[in-house]
Design a protein that fits this description.
Distance between the termini: 87 Å
Helix content: 10-25%
Shape: elongated
Number of helices: 4
Length: 406
């Protein structure tokens, strides 16, 4: 019996050894899935020297990937690639396109090339696109300097990365440097996930919002670090189901819903969660802002939790009389209806005496505000709170003391 058993095992091993090459040939001939790969250097003519214009090479690689019926990979090897404004248009035949960037995409030295365009890199009407790795260097300081000198000839500037009318988008491990204006804009999109995004611009750079979301739903931002001259994240009208978790914000203006009430028929903002965020030296922490103008817009079902403030000027603020220039400010009551806003486990230090401020509309008072376990101090002393037209309740330890009315 043992001899027969050993012989059978030996025969099985020999059979597998003989059949293995045939099995591999069959698997290769009939793959369960396939991916077409397009290298911007090979066959498309991109140059990684940062001096030669590679715009057309990137567009040709996109067109080839977009026309494929397989999953596709556009590969950008290490190096610096000079790109003018370009649009990656869909819809595409490929069900999933991955932009793998191991290099840096750089803008032209002349800031007017981008400055006169609305966007630098623009993805329009695409589905199933992933942007992985890489750096985007928009060379914004030259335009910032132009604006700082009040030169009338300065162009308005471009958004670095714009995703519009698209769905099922993933952005992972991307670095955005020195955008002329907004770094990343998500507009009219659905199902967008961003992970490990880093955004850097000088604290005095104008209008360099890190991530702006508007007219979009099911957007999630995880494990990111943003330091700019404006909002780390700005949340515009029509945003639904936004999730922000584990973020470092600073410098900048904090995380802002608004400004709202720019238009009468503005869409509302709802179901926003912001958790595990650290604000360092920012102008604001968590903010909701609207102009004092008539509007049908609203903000509801917002949850801020597990947040640390480090020397933040306005840690918690609702401002329905927003008018940053204080010139020709509207004198109406804001039409934005704000309700069901929760602040839970908010701790740290305020750079001003007023750590909690709810300046709500007399025509549409804020309602359903909930404060739970809030502890904010100013110079190691109790801070203060300020309320106008704000209704809500508090639980646990709340410092500064709640000024909400029932």
């Amino acid at each position: 019996m043992p001899n027969n058993y050993s012989n059978n095992i030996l025969m099985m091993k020999m059979s597998l050894f003989i059949l293995y090459p045939l099995i591999m040939l069959i698997l290769l001939a009939f793959p369960t899935s396939s991916t077409s790969s397009f290298n911007v250097l090979m066959g498309f003519g991109a140059k990684p020297n940062g001096l030669t214009d590679s715009t057309e090479a990137f567009l040709r690689a996109w067109e080839a990937a977009c026309a494929s019926t397989h999953d596709t990979l556009i590969y950008v090897p290490k190096g610096r690639y000079l790109l003018r404004p370009l649009v990656f248009k869909g819809p595409c035949k490929s069900p999933h396109i991955t932009f793998r960037i191991d290099g840096t995409l750089v803008a032209p030295q002349d800031y007017r090339v981008l400055g006169r365009a609305q966007n630098w890199l623009n993805f329009q009407r695409v589905t199933g696109v992933s942007i992985v790795g890489g750096a985007l260097d928009a060379k914004g300081p030259a335009l910032w300097a132009c604006k700082a000198n009040s030169a009338k000839s300065c162009p308005s500037g471009a958004t670095t990365l714009s995703i519009t009318y698209s769905k099922d988008i993933k952005i992972t491990g991307l670095l955005s440097l020195n955008s002329q204006m907004f770094h990343i804009v998500i507009n009219h999109c659905e199902n967008v996930e961003m992970r490990g995004v880093r955004i850097i611009a000088h604290r005095d750079s104008p209008n360099t919002d890190g991530i702006h979301v508007q007219l979009s739903k099911n957007v999630a931002i995880f494990n990111s670090a943003i330091g700019t001259g404006d909002d780390c994240v700005s949340i515009g009208p029509g945003t639904q189901n936004l999730w922000i978790e584990r973020m470092a914000c600073g410098p900048g203006h904090g995380i802002s819903i608004g400004s709202l009430a720019k238009d009468m028929n503005e869409e509302g903002v709802q179901n926003v969660t912001v958790k595990q965020v650290v604000f360092t030296g920012t102008q604001n922490g968590i903010r909701i802002k609207s102009w004092a103008k008539p509007s049908k817009g609203f903000v509801e079902s917002v949850h801020f939790s597990n947040i640390v403030m480090r020397n933040v000027q306005n840690p918690i603020i609702i401002d329905q009389n927003y008018c940053p220039s204080h010139v020709n400010c509207p004198d109406h009551a804001s039409g934005i209806k704000i309700k069901d806003i929760t602040y839970e486990n908010i701790k740290g230090t305020s750079a001003t005496t007023i750590a909690t401020k709810f300046d709500c509309s007399p025509g549409n008072p804020c309602s359903g505000i909930r404060l739970e376990d809030v502890n904010l101090t100013f110079q190691n002393k109790p801070a203060q709170s300020l309320c106008a037209n704000a209704k809500g309740i508090s639980f646990g330890t709340v410092l500064p003391n709640s000024c909400l009315s029932n």
